[in-house]
Fold this protein.
Amino acid sequence: MGGFTLVHFVYLLQATLWTVVLTVLAFGLGSLAGFVVMLARTARTRWIRAVSMIYVDIIQGTPLLIVLFLIYFGLAVVGIELPALLAAAISLMIYCSAFLGEIWRGCVQSVPRTQSEAAECLGLTRWQTLVDVILPQAMRIATPPTVGFLVQVLKNTSLASVAGFVELTRASQVINNSLFQPFLVFGIAGALYFALCYPLSRLSRALERKLNVGRRQPA
Amino acid sequence: MRYKFDFGALVEHWPEFLSGALTTLQMTAFAVVFGLAIGILCAIGRRSASPALQWLCGFYVETIRNTPYLIQIFFIFFGLSSIGIKLPILVAAVLTLVINVGAYTAEIVRAGMDTIHPGQIEAAQALGLSQPQIYWDVILRPALERVYPALTSQFVLMMLASSITSQISAEELTAVANNIQSFTFRAFETYIVVAVLYLLLAVLLKLAFYGFGQIIFPRRRRLGTAL
């Protein structure tokens, strides 16, 4: 036994760094995959839309924890042993892709139809229409919910602790196992998460307010 | 890759899967009822005239919404037992779930209340309605009707998040799966079965909420649209 010392705190800070690394990794990979999902969800071909919709529904209807177990424990049984960081990153990527794909689909589809019709009249290709006309407008709408979702990803990296990856949650468990001061240890861990998430939440809300300035209701 | 899938080994465990799924549903039901109550009270608190109450409700909502559920579980479960309060695991799990979903509900309900036009409330005051009447008939019911879809999808997400309570060994679906896979060594198959079960539960829940919404919001049913 003993008290919570500076050494413990430094250990938690290092683990926080790993939480950030995992978040960046998951969000980066998830954005790429989510972009593909968004393209598939808005595709012209019907079966591509159907398949991507089923994918999104399956991922959104399954707990992230189960996806993680499938990737980490499941693949190990089949003979593919992934390091915990990679397994967590892949699970989070899958999770991100479904949610971001759906968020972005909504944003892309909220750009008025006349915009893509005009682009078509000007003889732009489908890709040009998407990149030069639709996306710049959709991105403005997409930023607040995307930043908001980043908070979800950051919080959900805590599940990587279940696979044994030492990020903030795992590190606080390790410390608590030796000190058994759960209120203190998990309180500090919670505060560190809060310090990361709260600014992002505020940013998301501020961006949203800025976006809605034009059509604000009298309050 | 030479791996033969064998779902046969899991067949004899179906009663456990079933009871796990039922436990998950029960936890969800409790959390929805109490979480909604806390959420509504908190949303009212954030709109109240008292700065202390406003701050308190805001603190609760922001703290919960900006920290991981897993940390909340550990904080509450291990924290309570460290000061000598030993709750049955399922009670502790539901408690954390209620505290968690209450904060999200509060934010959604508050957003709904903010859409009520001040003129409506002034009109109700002019008609001499009492404060509770105004809150119930003019603010809360229309607000809940507007945010009903957002609320129900939050509850479905919470049902999925309840899988995390397996980390303190609450005997719900995920914990059951962990047990079964350690008996049978069929991790891949077990988690696939459980993923399918969660999907079914999610669909079931969505249907139930849809049906319930049709019953409690007759105006939506008649007009075919929300307010």
